[in-house]
Amino acid sequence: MGNPFAAPAARTPYPQPAPGEPVPPPPIAPDGPGRLPYGYGYAQYAPAQPHAAYQGGYGWPPVPPLAPSNGMGTAGLVLGILAAVVFCLWPLAIVLGILGVIFGVIGRRKARRGEATNPGQALAGIICGAVGIALGIAMLVFLVVVPDDSGDGDSGGGDGFSTSLVMEQQ
């Protein structure tokens, strides 16, 4: 039996290098290296900006930077807007406003450290949360200070029973 690691004996239509000669490079497609013509095959990975330490070759390409974490600033904005909109429900407006300010401050700190890209949204969350708190407190003060002018003229005295439907007995 022959060598199992030897090249196959079948003839190919492509020219083969003579033993001991260097192998020529593979052919290049018309669109450039690494691309197959007419859209066949898989798309090649090409990083937008190569990493400074990555010199090509074998191994894994560099890890791309992490996506910004904009959740805190966005949450602060949404809660602040809700607090300003539902100020008539003053307990809910005050709670939502406080949460909007807290999440807005956390979002601003993340943006200052470079972990987020939405410092404007976080600032708007702080402002809208503060406005929601102020409107909620103003609504509470309005409900406490303004007297009840229902116009029924009831002074609160009496026995607590309605006398408008009293019928005389015969």
What do you see in this structure?
The chain is mainly α. It is built from three helices and no strands. The chain has helices at residues 71-85, 90-113, 119-145. The longest helix has 27 residues, at 119-145.
Protein traits:
39% helix, 0% strand, mainly alpha, 170 residues, DUF4190, transmembrane helix, elongated, single chain, transmembrane
Give the number of helices: 3
Low-pLDDT segments: none
Distance between the termini: 132 Å
Strand pairing plus helix content: what structural class?
A: mainly alpha
Oligomer: single chain
- Number of β-strand runs: 0
The secondary-structure element order is HHH
Summarize the structure.
By secondary structure, the protein is an all-alpha fold. Helix content is 39%, strand content 0%. Keywords: Membrane, Transmembrane, Transmembrane helix.
